[in-house]
Amino acid sequence: MSAFGEALSRWARRNPGRTAVVDDRVRLTYEQVDATVDSIGAALQRAGVGPGDVVSSQLPNCAEAFSLCLAVTRIGAVHNPIVTIYREREVAYIREEAGSAVVVDGRSHELLHPPVASPTTVRPAPDATRYLLYTSGSTSAPKGVRHSDLTLTAECVAQASYHGLGANEVFVMPSPVGHISGLLYGILLPVWLGATSVLMPVWDPGRFLELVATEHGTFCGGATPFLQGVVEHPALSQFDLSSLRRFPCGGADVPPDLIRAAGRLGIRSGRGYGSTEFPSITSSAGPGEPEHKRAETDGRPIGDNEVRVVDGEIQARGRECFLGYQDPSLDDDAFTVDGWFRTGDLGTLDPDGYLTVAGRLKDVIVRSGEKISAREVEVLLADHPAVAAVAVVALPDPRTGERACACVVPRDGAEPPTLESLCEFLFGLGLSRRKLPEQLALFDGLPTTPAGKVDKPALRTRIAARSEGRR
């Protein structure tokens, strides 16, 4: 049984009637979830799942996803949640690389709603791989990130200590449970604390405000658009948000004024920095942090984490750092010879030890906290019959942090492709909608560096100049 499975059983014994999880259909107590987890675990074992096997799942934020995660780890298998916006192309790749023994989705009624039974619990080594999450990162193919009970309990301990969290917390969680933030704040941290998780299957700021008011939500954490949607909601004053005390924000550029606006509402917020590989490297959202540090830096290391900047690159180490990639050939580039994780991001440390992220070495677009590989989109667009050359760059966006702009050299200048035709082409290849470019810029040729690579900073400068010229 995993550390989180043991925590679930402990809270089911100590406080069986406490609400464990709420979704848009059901409310389950700790006693009910514990019994459901047993039944699902037994069903998985009947389906042939054994210790170390990978159970892939593609489920929305719901009670079934909550229970499945804990059932998989209870029987010693590996939990591999896949975000619901991934389509055939990404899912097929993940299933093959992960070696999935079972794939669970909304049609898996016999696994998610099995008859009552008890599984044979398994206690693998605490440093064994128990969680496998995929992130696009900076390469064209998703990267499998391996975590253990040790890495993710270290994250939970650090979060609980830093924010002063306890069993009375009510987490209102819009982040998908297939992401590290949704998995942690929506399932693992609530169970670790014996708290309540309120899962939102679809993000809607009005619905979020309703849930905070009716469920007395105390905590939310996620990407910039979530906090922005709350602060800017036109009917904000109609909701009682007095219970919502903490809302750390990260995953995309966070405007300083957004943090200040949250503070005026009585919500303690602040920027944070982490990744699927290293969930919470730093945070500025803790008690006692000065407002200017909350708004203008990405905070200080939490827990036992350490941060250094080498040749401009942010490097980190600590107990919550991942075990390595599913493809071990990626590990050499991910770690320094002395064991620090190379984030691929640029940053600076001020004299007080606060980190400020300045940019990325990795070629990705971070849209609403989601990392999108520019290379993956470029490779596919290069096969479009109307495209002679293409580069995809990140541009600032006031709503999502960044948006993807396809910079295209047409094969026929008289009949250039449209943004709609490019998106239709990509979607037809099975690419998820979240990765589709939102802007098209046409060029006669793409600028290159002396080494012959596309000069993306120069492309951004040219696009900005065009925008200035239209004003």
Structure keywords:
single chain; alpha/beta; Rossmann fold; GMP Synthetase, Chain A, domain 3; 2 domains; four-stranded mixed sheet; 15 helices; 23 strands; 25% strand
Count of strand segments: 23
Which oligomeric state applies?
single chain
- Uncertain regions spanning at least 5 consecutive residues: none
CATH superfamily of the largest domain: ANL, N-terminal domain
Contiguous helical run count: 15
Into which percent range does the helicity of residues fall?
Answer: 25-40%
> Major sheet: order of its strands?
2-1-9-8
- Say what the CATH topology of the largest domain is: Rossmann fold
Classification by helices and strands: alpha/beta
How far apart, in Å, are the first and last alpha carbons? Answer: 62 Å
How would the global form be characterised? globular
| Count of domain modules | 2
Gyration radius from CA atoms, angstroms: 22 Å
